[in-house]
Design goal:
249 residues, 7-stranded mixed sheet, globular
C-alpha cells in the first residue's frame, strides 16, 4: 500500500494533516494504518472519506456552513489569526479541530438520536449488503484519510463532518450514534462518506453481537424490513468492522 502525505495547501478535508492511500488489498491494511497513526500520534483521530468522495466533500462543505460548525470568536485565537478569520473564515488545522469539536459537542448536548427516523428502510436502496461484499464501493481509490486533533474517538466525525440533507443523521446525531456504539459494542467510527459510516472494534462480532447491534439500530429506520435486517446481521457477523447508512429516505 502506498501512503502519500498531503500537506498544505492541498487540503481536500479540514484536519490536522491528510493522507492519500492507494494500492491497498485488504481492509486490514486500512485498519493497521489507522491503528499505527493513532499509536504514533496520541490525541489524534483518523477518518476515511467513504463512498462518493466528490459528493462527500460537497456535503461536508455545506454541513459545516449550515450548522455553523466553523463559527469562532476572537477568544479562540490570536489577534493575527482573528484578522485572517474575519477576512476569509480561514482556520489553521489546530484551530479547526478546537472550534469544530466544541461546536459539535455544544449542539450535540441539545440533540437526541431520533426514533422512527426517516432513514431509508430499504437497505437495497443504498446497496448496503453489497457494500459489505464489495469494499471498492466503500473505500474508493485513491482513498482520502482526514485526521483531527481530538482525544475523543467518536469526535473523529469532526474531521470530515457530514449529514447535510434534512432526513439524514446530522453531524451531531452521527456523533451521538458513534458514542452510543462505542459504549455499547466497543465500535469506533473510522470512516464517513456521503451516506455510509464505517466502524471497527478489536474483536469480530459474534452472531449474537451482530443481532443485538442491528436490533439497536432499527429505531433509526422508518418501518424497517425484518428480512433486510436479517441479511445485515448475517453479513456483519464474524467481522470486526461494520457499515451502516445514515442517509434519509
Amino acid at each position: 500500500m502506498e501512503i502519500e502525505h498531503l500537506p498544505l495547501p492541498y487540503r481536500p478535508c479540514n484536519g490536522l494533516g491528510e493522507f492519500r492511500l492507494t494500492g491497498w488489498e485488504d481492509i486490514e491494511e486500512l485498519l493497521e494504518f489507522r491503528d499505527s497513526y493513532r499509536a504514533e500520534n496520541p490525541g489524534r483521530q483518523t477518518l476515511y472519506v467513504l463512498d462518493n468522495v466528490q459528493q462527500a466533500n460537497y456535503t461536508n462543505m455545506h454541513t459545516l456552513d449550515s450548522n455553523g460548525l466553523q463559527r469562532a470568536t476572537s477568544d479562540d485565537m490570536s489577534a493575527a489569526a482573528w484578522e485572517l478569520y474575519q477576512d476569509n473564515y480561514e482556520l489553521t488545522p489546530e484551530l479547526f479541530a478546537k472550534v469544530v469539536e466544541r461546536n459539535i459537542q455544544t449542539l450535540a448536548d441539545e440533540t437526541e438520536l431520533p426514533t422512527n427516523a426517516l432513514l431509508s428502510p430499504n437497505l437495497e436502496e443504498v446497496e448496503l449488503i453489497e457494500c459489505f461484499r464489495n469494499l471498492e464501493r466503500v473505500f474508493p481509490t485513491p482513498l482520502l484519510c482526514a485526521t483531527i486533533a481530538t482525544a475523543d474517538p467518536s469526535m473523529a466525525v469532526a474531521a470530515h463532518a457530514n449529514g447535510y440533507f434534512s432526513a439524514d443523521l446530522s453531524p451531531m446525531q452521527n456523533y451521538l450514534l458513534a458514542d452510543k456504539l462505542r459504549a455499547t459494542f466497543g465500535l469506533e467510527l473510522f470512516g464517513l462518506g456521503s451516506y455510509l459510516a464505517a466502524y471497527v472494534r478489536d474483536e469480530p462480532l459474534s452472531s449474537d453481537d451482530a443481532q443485538h447491534l442491528v436490533d439497536s439500530l432499527k429505531s433509526l429506520y422508518w418501518k424497517p424490513n425484518d428480512e433486510d435486517f436479517d441479511q445485515w446481521r448475517d453479513v456483519a457477523a464474524g467481522k470486526r468492522w461494520f457499515l451502516l447508512s445514515y442517509r434519509g429516505s
